[in-house]
Specification:
492 residues; alpha/beta; Elongation Factor Tu (Ef-tu), domain 3; 4 domains; six-stranded antiparallel barrel; six-stranded parallel beta sheet; 18 helices; 14 strands; 18% strand; superoxide-generating NAD(P)H oxidase activity
Length: 492
């Protein structure tokens, strides 16, 4: 219980990144990679334990009534042998709070499923705040002091009165067992301390994030917006105040658009860093749900009105609230000497900042970059094809053609004519386009052959199925003399 809120404390994780990243970056990256998994494991474990705990106490309620004993009223939850089971379950503080806790856990787990998150994000987001109700009921739950222990076992050994009734009194040792009636006490409760510690960290974290994200310093407005091919949105955002925020490749921000919803915050990877002395950055947002659909419609509507008015934009700039930036496992890419990045669709975005950094500067690391980009539609490749082509040309001109290795995979409705039409003037893109899905064995054989007895950091961003497959391939081919370290960031 103390740990379940920590993975969601983004400021807390940012502090960990700053404090301990310099000592053990690999351990920290592993933690950041597993925060969501840790939260899921703890959440579902809590649900399972709660169900088992509840079933056990449902049975206990029946036993309290059926086996009521007048001699032990003090430790019996029931008021008598004729007490109502439903009263104990719903009309007592312990029973009522237990039922509320179980219902909130079931509701949160059900509405946290991927199918619900993608289609009804508001339901997922709102229901997850029921954890505050859960915590309140959890602290209230033990106040009835139902569970007690005997405090005078030295003068009233357990079940001594039963022994006296059935044992021959010629045994003098048994005649002095019951010197006084049994006494019971609920004891001092300390279990609440650990959940409270986790809750306090969360409340401090969320309060700090609320104050900063709603301050003028972190209010941003659009400098440039347009709807992209492949049902995506380009947002170039600028801080309303002259705020300079340090952003590194691979980081993400949480974005809220008050015009769409004052409750929803959505994470997006930054695709272009602020230039020196500037305070603007770029996001590329793929439509994946009602919030992003609404954003896309608003941007498309603004574009249409602007065209109808001969280039004059009748709207005010769109304003957003910003929370972040925050580190992710992708923030580690610049510290790696050799990387293989595998992106599916919009999963390319964490790598885009690396490409743009390599284009604009002469950084030494990563020294070798391998990119595998998979997409269903050709329009997706149009988002960043220019950056891919220019980066290849840059290294070719520097006589370093092997520094940037690219393979592109178009998985659905492959069309040579359409490919020639879209990328006819980009031969470096057209020649690297492949039909269908990658043959991972061929790709990993190339990697281990190129780097025998060396290490390669493998990053992937995409759906769960891709993550599982790449993880298995890394384990399999690490046995061939090349150490493959795997890091991933998933969708949803």
């Amino acid at each position: 219980m103390a740990l379940i809120t920590l993975p969601t404390c983004k400021t807390f994780n940012l502090l960990l990144h700053k404090l301990f990243g310099r000592f053990s970056m690999r351990l920290l990256v592993h933690y950041l990679e597993k925060t969501k998994v840790l939260h899921l494991i703890l959440g579902y474990s809590l649900l399972i334990v709660a169900i088992v705990h509840s079933v056990a106490h449902f049975v206990n309620i029946v036993n309290f009534v059926d086996n009521y004993d007048e001699r032990y009223r003090e430790i019996n939850w029931a008021n008598g042998p004729d007490d109502n089971i439903l009263r104990l379950l719903f009309a007592t503080p312990t029973g009522f709070s237990g039922c509320i806790m179980l219902l909130t856990l079931v509701a949160m787990a059900y509405l946290a499923r991927r199918s619900v998150r993608d289609r009804f994000y508001n339901s997922f987001f709102t229901s997850h705040h029921l954890f505050l109700v859960f915590y309140g009921m959890m602290f209230y739950h033990p106040l009835s002091n139902i569970i007690k222990h005997q405090t005078n076992t030295d003068k009233h050994r357990i079940a001594c009165d039963l022994v006296d009734n059935v044992t021959l009194h010629s045994n003098e040792d048994l005649l002095v067992l019951c010197e006084e009636p049994p006494q019971f006490d609920a004891g001092v409760k300390r279990a609440w301390i650990w959940p409270l510690a986790g809750l306090l960290i969360y409340l401090v974290d969320i309060s700090y994030r609320y104050l900063t994200s709603h301050s003028e310093r972190y209010r941003v407005a659009t400098v440039q917006t347009y709807a992209m091919t492949g049902h995506a949105v380009h947002l170039r955002l600028q801080f309303c105040k002259k705020t300079i925020v340090k952003i590194i490749p691979g980081q993400y921000v949480l974005l809220q658009c008050p015009a769409i919803s004052t409750l929803e915050w959505h994470p997006f990877t930054i695709t272009e860093l602020p230039a020196a002395g500037r305070n603007d950055f770029t996001l590329t947002i793929k439509v994946r749900g009602d919030w992003t659909e609404e954003l896309y419609d608003r941007v498309a509507q603004r574009e249409q009105c602007k065209r109808n008015l001969g280039g004059v934009d009748p709207y005010r700039r769109m304003e957003f609230l910003l929370d972040g930036p925050y580190p992710s496992v992708m923030s580690n890419m610049l510290d790696c000497k050799r990387i293989l990045f595998i992106g599916a669709g919009v999963g390319i975005t964490p790598f885009v900042t690396i490409m743009r950094l390599l284009l604009s500067t002469n950084v030494d690391q990563p020294a070798r970059v391998h990119l595998v980009w998979i997409a269903r539609s050709l329009e997706t490749f149009l988002w960043f094809a220019d950056e891919v082509a220019r980066l290849q040309e840059k290294f070719w001109s520097q006589n370093k053609p092997d520094r940037f290795w690219v393979k592109l995979y178009w998985t659905q409705n492959y069309d040579e004519l359409l490919l020639a039409e879209c990328f006819g003037d980009m031969p470096s893109i057209k020649s690297r386009m492949h039909r269908g899905r990658p043959n991972w064995n061929d790709i990993f054989i190339d990697i281990v052959t190129l780097y025998p007895k060396k290490s390669v950091s493998v990053f992937s961003c995409g759906p769960k199925e891709l993550t599982k497959e790449i993880r298995l391939k890394c384990k399999e081919y690490s046995k061939h003399g090349c150490k493959l370290s795997y890091f991933h960031e998933g969708f949803g």
